[in-house]
Design brief:
Length: 582
């Protein structure tokens, strides 16, 4: 049996430990159901050493007995004060590592003495050396120090898909960095890295805190800024609202009994929409996009030379972050490996390779399709009633639930049709409709009455779509069984070909021609589907004609025939269907 080498992500805010067991990568639980250990160390009332959540909990009350974000000080020759004693940054980090080591030992029942530890790509030699020393103090032989973006690339298995240039975008709680990584036959090289050590999800929280403070000032005439405990509670409420806004169009920032005014308790409860929130954080996100371009020019690359974007860090779950990256780089960022855990997973994969095992791959259950609905909006410069609005994007880990806000379009509108599609095309009608329903009995309200539509997809492929009138709570929903698996066999192939076709065409230079070609292909696929359905209900003679017609269209779709030939085959099949249908 090979010796265990653990993989450790020693983060500024949080740390994780992972191992490879039976060919599978596992991030170990630090407490039941929790795999993230806050990187906070403290000394409790009774003098006991606290590490992780307990230390984080006491931080607000006893900062003099607690230390956080020690990673920022690694490599410095300074003393860190904690409960009246001085420690080196290495010693504080060692306490976290020691705790992670104990966790690994408890899970495996074996002594753990070796580790692979990750560090940011920008870490200097002194900072790497300090990290190595911290490991040694914790009783761990540091087999290798690897760069965090390299670990992320390993977790995403990008290294197995040939030579690639990958952008690793890492937005955590308090730090941001972006790296351009070159992957070539198992050699991973960080070409350039850029970032901001003081930018992250915490800044997003602070925007919401300011929003709440201003609300309390306006509505209750109180200034909470001098009340440290109330501010700490606001911060927690803000983080919860922020996380909710990643999946929902509205969230309530709420905190009961926040404080008292003239002996009367003041409760906070204020709604914030995703649009408002996105406006607050847009400057921060813009700053990260600028950093992406600095990293790209540092690597001597242009946007079009990047093959993949990998997301790392909890704050990358923010929809605005993903949208801006996609708009700017023209690639849908990959987020299927848990952004909080992928660095630890990559470290464990590297550790397994050093231990002599085979490199395992990370298995994640993701949806292979995009699901969404349609709404009126701009398409190709015109207002169009069936613009596709994706809610669950392909490659999203399941189970997942996402909500979006929609609005009625005219005064007194009492019903709304909700169509459910699977596909990628901006024109919803080019996607596959998998369900529809109507929500009726809406309030008699002016246009702009908000509705919230939620798509919830479970691991069994059951998609539940719900629409709720925001003000009244009126709800209607449908359940689509087997949303993922419904395109079995031929149908699956046809659907995939159809979508592939659209993608192929999208890359063609002549946009107008591409649209024409795409429409033809969509028409062809729809006709084939219809013809195949009819085959089961017609006599043998007709069936033969049908088979020939279908084959002719399929030949044109598969081969490099001209558009005119495809059109002729489509017309012939359509004629036949018309006659059979009559
Ligand atoms: P990390 O340092 O990678 O652990 O990232 C922590 C940051 O991610 C914190 O600011 C969290 O509030 C933030 N975060 C975690 N989950 C989400 C989410 N679903 N949406 C937005 N931010 C999140």
């Amino acid at each position: 049996m090979t010796e265990i080498i653990v993989g450790i992500d020693l983060g500024t805010t949080n740390s994780e430990v992972a191992i490879v067991r039976d060919g599978r990568v596992e991030v170990l639980e630090v407490a039941p159901g929790v795999r993230i250990l806050p990187s906070v160390v403290g000394v409790g009332d009774d003098g006991a050493l606290l590490i992780g959540q307990a230390a984080r909990n006491q931080y607000v009350l006893h900062p003099e007995r607690s230390v956080r974000s020690i990673k920022r000080r690694m490599g410095e020759f300074t003393a860190v004060h904690m409960a009246g004693k001085d420690y080196s940054p290495q010693e504080i980090s060692a306490m976290i590592l020691r705790r992670l080591r104990e966790i690994a030992e408890a899970h495996t029942g074996e002594t753990v003495t070796k580790a692979v530890i990750t560090v940011p790509a920008y870490f200097s030699d002194a900072q790497r050396q300090a990290t190595r020393e911290a490991g040694e103090i914790a009783g761990l032989e540091v087999m290798r120090i690897i760069n965090e973006p390299t670990a992320a690339a390993l977790a995403y298995e990008s290294c197995h898909s040939g030579a690639r240039k990958v952008l690793v975008y890492d937005l955590g709680g308090g730090t941001f960095d972006v790296s351009v990584v070159n992957l070539e036959s198992a050699v991973v090289e960080v070409l350039a890295s850029h970032g901001n050590n003081h930018l992250g999800g915490d800044d997003f929280d602070l925007q919401l805190v300011t929003f709440a403070v201003e609300h309390l000032q306006r509505e209750n005439g109180i200034d909470v800024r001098d009340n440290a405990v109330a501010m700490a509670r606001l911060q927690r409420a803000a983080e919860a609202a922020k996380i909710a806004l990643s999946d929902q169009p509205y969230a309530i920032l709420s905190e009961e009994y926040l404080l008292e005014k003239d002996g009367v308790p003041v409760h906070l409860s204020v709604e914030v929409s995703r649009d408002e929130y996105e406006e607050m954080i847009a400057p921060f996100v813009a700053e990260t996009i600028e950093a992406v371009h600095v990293a790209l020019s540092g690597a001597g690359l242009t946007v079009s030379e990047i093959n993949e974007i990998l997301l790392v860090g909890g704050a990358t779950r923010t929809p605005l972050v993903q949208r801006r990256l996609e708009q700017d780089l023209g690639l849908q960022p990959r987020a299927e490996v848990d952004p909080d855990l992928c660095v630890a997973m990559g470290a464990a994969i590297q550790a397994a390779v050093i231990a002599g095992g085979q490199a395992p791959t990370v298995l994640v259950d993701v949806t292979p399709y995009t699901f969404g609905t349609s709404a009126i909006g701009p398409l190709n410069g015109e207002i169009y009633p069936y613009c596709f609005v994706p809610l669950i994007r392909k490659n999203t880990p399941i189970p997942v639930s996402r909500s979006e806000g929609f609005f009625t379009v005219y005064d007194g509108q009492t019903k709304v049709d909700v169509n459910v599609y699977q596909g990628e095309d901006p024109d919803a009608l080019n996607n596959i409709e998998i369900g529809r329903f109507t929500i009726e009995g809406l309030r008699d309200a002016p246009a702009g009455n908000p509705l919230i539509t939620t798509f919830a997809l479970d691991v069994n492929g059951i998609l539940q779509v719900t629409s709720r009138e925001k003000e009244s709570g009126l709800v209607h929903s449908i359940t689509i069984d087997n949303a993922i698996g419904r395109f079995a066999g031929d149908k699956l192939t046809a659907a995939r070909d159809r979508i592939d076709g659209m993608f192929g065409d999208r890359e063609e230079a002549g946009a107008a021609e591409a649209v024409g070609g795409r429409r033809l292909r969509v028409e062809a696929t729809a006709l084939i589907e219809k013809a195949e359905r009819l085959m089961t209900s017609t006599g043998a003679e007709d069936s033969e004609d049908l088979v020939n017609g279908i084959e002719a269209v399929k030949d044109c779709l598969a081969g490099s025939r001209s558009e005119a030939e495809l059109k002729t085959a489509i017309d012939a099949l359509a004629d036949l269907l018309y006659y059979l249908d009559a």
